[in-house]
Amino acid sequence: MARLNLVSKISMLAGSCLMAASLAAPASAEDVTDQALGQWDRTNLGWVVEFSACGEYLCGEIVSGEGTDRNSGESVVGIQMLFDLERHDDTEWRGRMYNPEDGNEYMGKVTILGPNEIRMSGCMVGGLICRSEEWPRTGQ
Question: Domains in the chain, start-ordered, CATH in brackets?
Answer without folding.
Answer: 28-136 (2.40.128.520)
